[in-house]
Amino acid sequence: MRNRFDEQLELLNVELIRMGALCEDAISYASRTLMGEGDFANEVYKADHEIDQKEREIENLCMRLLLQQQPVAKDLRQVSSALKMISDMERIGDQASDIAEICGFVDDREAKSRLHIRDMADATMRMVTQSIDSYVKRDLNIAKEVVQYDDVVDDLFDKVKQELIGMLSAGNNDEKLGEFCIDMLMIAKYFERIGDHATNIAEWVEYSITGTHLE
């Protein structure tokens, strides 16, 4: 009985890794589209769709584990935490899609390369990867690093805001520049939210290990 349960837990880990990789793909394609490396919007939408499918598959797996195995204590926390984590990962896919959609309206200005948004994208991808890694490895230290690293994303968001304010101040009431800055601020906000979701995942990992969930 226990061997069967362990096999299903291992399958759950594999599926979470796959869902996490899809989240990384969605973020990466959205960032590349923004930076003018090509139009990868359809790749973002495809990844988002696959993330939605993976959420349903993992949810079904977790429900089978709960109903058939009736886990208790640490095992119950592990399965219930996975259910919470996939909800945050699904939102990451949605926000990457939102970024890709806005990219279709952002005009092609060199200013994009001078903003810290690419750094935000890289930071959030790192957070997503490490949060899933901490769950699979049952590593509390990695989870705590993710929570702390959210400060880096928040600092980058503040830098983007200041950069955009500076551009507007020097823009001489350029209407197109105003639209550009609003779009870029929205994109930066979506990346900041992705960092928040990765933090949520790490906090659920902490709960699954310790039984304590930090708000």
What do these coordinates show?
By secondary structure, this protein is mainly α. It has a single domain, classed as Methane Monooxygenase Hydroxylase, Chain G, domain 1 (Up-down Bundle), CATH 1.20.58.220. The protein has helices at residues 2-34, 41-69, 73-103, 117-137, 140-169, 175-210. The protein is elongated and about 70 Å long. Homodimer. Its main location: cytoplasm. It is found in: Cytoplasm.
Task: State the CATH topology.
Answer: Methane Monooxygenase Hydroxylase, Chain G, domain 1
The largest β sheet comes out as: none
Give the topology string: H per helix, E per strand.
HHHHHH
**pLDDT below 50 for ≥5 consecutive residues: which ranges?**
none
Task: Name the helicity range.
Answer: over 70%
- Tell me the CATH architecture: Up-down Bundle
- Superfamily (CATH H level) name: Phosphate transport system protein phou homolog 2, domain 2
Count the domains.
1
Beta-strand content estimate: under 5%
Structural class by SSE content: mainly alpha
Average pLDDT score: 91
The beta-strand count equals 0
The end-to-end span amounts to: 35 Å
The tally of helices reads 6
Estimate the global geometry from the Cα principal axes. elongated
Q: What value does the Rg take, in angstroms? A: 19 Å
Classified by CATH, the class is Mainly Alpha
Brief characterization of the structure:
This protein is mainly α. The protein is built from 6 helices and no strands.
Q: What order do the helices and strands come in, and which of them pair?
A:
Layout: H1 2-34, H2 41-69, H3 73-103, H4 117-137, H5 140-169, H6 175-210
Helix pairs in contact: 1-2, 1-3, 1-4, 2-3, 3-6, 4-5, 4-6, 5-6
